[in-house]
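Thread: Newbie trying to understand structure tokens

Hi all, I'm a second-year student working on a class project, and my supervisor (Dr. K.) asked me to get a predicted structure for one chain before our next meeting. I've only ever worked with sequences, so writing a 3D structure as a token string is new to me. If someone could post the tokens and maybe explain what I'm looking at, I'd be very grateful. Here's the chain:
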Amino acid sequence: SAGPAKPPSAALAGGAGGDAARAGFSAEALPEWARAAAQLVVLPFAVVFVGFYFAVSFLAVDVTFCAVAAAMKLAGKGAERTLHEMQAMVFRVWISPAACYLETFGGLRMELTGERLNGEESVVCMANHRQFADSFICAAMARQVSRHGDIKCIVKRSLLFLPVFGLGAYLSNACVFIKRSNPASSSRLLHQTFSALLHDHSPSTPHPRPFWLLIFPEGTRLTPSKLAASREFSLATKASAHPPVPLLSHLLVPRYKGVSKAIAELRPTLSAVYDLTLAYADHGNPADPRPRFLDLVFRCALGVPRVVRVHQRRIPIAEVPGGGAASETKEGEALRDWVYEQFAEKDRLLEEVEREGRFPGEELEFRRVALGYAAACMAGLVVMAAPPVAVGVAVWWRSFR
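---
Reply by user tm_fold:
Sure, no problem. This is what the structure looks like when written as tokens:
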């Protein structure tokens, strides 16, 4: 019989201490008043940087690149390949300064275990979902194999209306915005996205760029109330579902249709499926995974690493069901069962993190964003932001001189 749900998995705080010691200075040695004073001293820097980054991002991506992308769209299909190359470059340049800031100022550290990934293959990447920072974590995994400009994330449509970032992600083709309340529209949009990826990787396309298609199969962030509802659903369907829906303690029951559709349609281009399992510290409060994204942005780490544990699994596409002579219905059922199996394994891994304080396996090297590279990317954004600023100054000068 099923017992009460345990709290969502926590990457235990133990283990961060060694990282902190290796980092040299640690604010943990300071009294509480000194840490609070230090945060007040560095907060203006955080506010200035974030404000400057938002302003430059708006001018460079939402204005300048919007105009460039529109012009290339008007140029016709012959310019599509060049546009896609530019979108990858712009997204890579755009997110690198932010990633460097989160790792340097915010103290974000990834403790990686599992299998090494390959930057030369196109993959569907699926991850569990705890908070807004998850997308940045997955992009950091893509950056380890130099694919951070080629990641495409399927997200809910409401994120399109985030100031600056929503439009920027749309223009750089980094996100596919679907409306979950309209399945027919979402299905058409996904089919268009998959068709474009297949076209880019057709035999007639020379040197196609590998891509990461990122999906969060749970469809929403995990909370205690959602976990309880998910377990109730699993128990209610236990007798009627074949196979039964998995009863998970640290994850929500996955919405398998998006993953299944992606794998089924993109199979000719895929080399593998990457399964990323993310574990945060929640310190006894499952509704509050740590580090919080806003803490990474506005609260300096002061030498104390903020650790997120990530376990990587590479599943060759040949080991994923489907792709043979089976009917579409049979293939869909096989993929559904396979997705359930992967989430049962993810739940077991998170159980081990809760028990042992870490994922199994040898720790892999995590490459941080180099300060020089981030500075060069920031300079590139400033250059991209210059044309609208110059136009604005010229208009002002002619109007008010």
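A couple of things are worth pointing out once you decode it. The first strand starts at residue 108 and ends at 114. The chain has eleven helices and eight strands. Feel free to ask follow-ups in this thread.
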